[in-house]
Amino acid sequence: MLEAKLSELEARARRELQAASTPEQLERVRVEILGRKGELAEISKGLGKLPPEERARVGKLLNSVKQTLEQILEQRKAAFEAAATQARLQAEWVDFTLPAPPPPLGHLHPISRIQAEIEDVFTSLGFTVLDGPEVETEYNNFDALNIPADHPARDMQDTFWLTDGNLLRTHTSPVQVRGMLKHGAPLRMIAPGRVFRNEEVDASHEHTFYQLEGMMIDREVSVAHLVYFMKTMLSAVFHREVTVRLRPGYFPFVEPGFELEVQCLLCGGAGCPVCKYGGWVEQLGCGLVHPNVLRMSGIDPDEWNGFAFGLGLTRLVMMRYGIDDIRYLQSGDLRFLNQF
Ligand code: DAH
Fold it and tell me: What is the pLDDT of residues 281-316, one digit of tens each?
């Protein structure tokens, strides 16, 4: 009677242990069958009513069934654990031989880009690119450019003076002086760079901005040459043929001096907010180099002459990209810079 019950329970327990598909189901089977109040414990309570020889035999049998089932239980448990470990390893697996994702690449600042484009145009026309220091002498920044100490033109540019008498250059024109002294005539040079003025900062004024200076000295250089080079440069920057015109302009280092204007690229000259309804946009200062400027830097104005120009690079970049606040350019703000 007890033996039959036992073998029925063993068969059922084996089936259920195998059928359990989660550790939780397995645990339930264990509690129901092998637990302290489980079915096996229930059966063992009947042992006491058996005659002694029967009791020993069935007791043994019961123990062996219990051991067998416990063994199966342990195996099943181990199988679940192995599967869990396997799944975890699968999820954590990292392939160290995979190539790393590329680091985010930066790009050139819009000013550097336009500067490089203009350098390409001029170097292809036989100009060299010169560099000058941002801290300049008063002589190079003013005197050698025909702006003597008592000249009112000194007040046109608010200068940052240094305590040693030097200054932060207010324009790139002093590089003309350095170019002439170093290379003499003939000369074809441009000089892009940073300049500084003691300005109240607002949407259209910065204390620090970029200019691009140019100078060509040769025999019999004319305004026609000047216009040709300016048109070539601006057409390259704006990626289309531009129309330019000259208006008289005063700069002490050129005579005659001009303001060069470009026909508005937005409205084609009809008038719009960008050109303030005039149809033309002032683009750069230029002119034929003043004889005093040549002479002061050791070039004989009876033998040589030339043109010079000074382009507001920052302003040009703003026009080219439609940037309406100069302060963005030095902000270092990636939300701004990533648009280029
Ligand atoms: N240096 C002038 C400025 O900063 C710009 C300029 C005008 C440069 C005429 C030149 C020039 O070389 O010929 O306002």
Answer: 899 999 999 999 999 999 999 999 999 999 999 989
Neighbouring residues of 192: CB distance < 8 A, sequence distance ≥ 6: 115, 118, 119, 129, 172, 210, 211, 212, 213, 313
Return the residue whose CA atom lies nearest to atom 8 of ligand 1: 310
Residues 242 and 129 grouped into a single domain: yes
**Closest C-alpha to 134, from 210, 54, 187:** 210
Choosing from 34, 62, 92, the residue where a domain stops is 92
Q: From atom 7 of ligand 1, which residue's Cα is the shortest distance away?
A: 285
Q: For residue 8, what are its two tokens?
A: 């029925």
Question: Atom of ligand 1 at shortest distance to CA of 214?
Answer: 12
Detail the DSSP E strand segments found in 148-234.
167-168, 187-196, 208-218
This prediction has a pTM of 0.72
- Residues 162, 14, single domain; the answer is no
Q: What's 120's domain CATH number?
A: 3.30.930.10
pLDDT per residue over 212-235, tens digit each? 999 999 999 999 999 999 999 999
| Inter-CA distances, 220 with 159, 233, 302, 306, Å | 35, 21, 10, 8
Residue pair 23/77 in contact (Cβ under 8 Å)? The answer is yes
